[in-house]
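Repro:
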Amino acid sequence: MLPTGLKDNQLRESNSQKVHPQPMEESINQNPEAVEALISKIFTNISSLKSAYIQLQSAHTPYDPEKIQAADKLVISELKNLSELKHFYRENYPKPVCVSPQDSRLAAEIQEQQSLLKTYEVMVKKFQSEIQNKDAEILQLQQQIEEATQKRGKLEKNLKLRGLSTKESEGSGDENGFFPVDLTPELFIFAVEAAFKAIHDFSKPLINMMKAAGWDLDAAANSIEPDVFYAKRAHKKYAFESHICQRMFSGFQQESFSIKSDNVTFTKESFFHQFLALREMDPLDVLGQNPDSIFGKFCRSKYLAVVHPKMEASFFGNFDQRNYVMGGGHPRTPFYQAFLKLAKSIWLLHSLAYSFDPNVKVFQVKRGSEFSEVYMESVVKNLIMDENQKPIVGLMVMPGFWIGGTVIQSRVYLSGVKVAE
């Protein structure tokens, strides 16, 4: 125990120190490491505040209420920390802490680097999000460009098919209401492509109705052309397309298309006039105006030739539609309307063929003929050819044409040829 007088003296000295603090310059000079540690804490807190603020910003794009709330709390927390440091600095001179100043400074630097790292992570995520958005925009624009290119190609093809240039389409038609058309080989080539597509399009509902009626498609295809070796079972559709084509092109080499009609004069001008008159019209509307026209007779005869009575009976359960056609009518059923699109394309091709001088010649390819790249085109691509054996024609799907000095190849299916997967 200390004497009473000595104890009182120490208490007075202690109270004297509290009432009269040391000057700041003297305190800083005495503890420079402590001041440096405090400053490091301030900078660390500022970095953390910056990181929290960036997180708050990123939570708005895209808008995420939960992230916004969490980031807001983090910003408030860092602001409170900064406020506490400010009050501590004002009310107390920097004092050494229990750990060494070097350790405090190192810890502050580590914390600051961690805050910077969080900031960079947030920025990287934000940039990645922006990149993804830009990639999505680029992909969308590419799709729009592709769609626009396809539409442009279709429009150009239609203009060429109609014989219209951009300037011509802006003008008016002639006195008969027809636009000016150039009778060129290109126009006929487009008509051939349209006819081939029409055959393919009509074969689809025909095959589907055969399936629904319970037909044996393998046996039906074999009855059309027996002993054809198909690379794939799906290729048997070409047998049905060949059947349709053979029936539709029968009589094509004759001006009358084998249709009997009295008091009809055939001239190149009249054929071209038929082509111009029918190309933009709905065939059912044409037949409604004149069901007994030469085109109407053509449609009736070809329908009865393409659609076998057994087919029709299995499809519809009766012969009502067939009897209606045989009686001179043109039913408005979906199946008959699908057929009329095919009939129109073949009729337009025939009219155009006899508009040229000299006439366009049609040629067929017999089954068993050797494949010729000059006169034939395979309907199946990616074929594996045997170098030691020339491929043989199994089916003629579409005939070929001579127009002037130009050859339009026949479309054929090659038998016994493998197809690359």
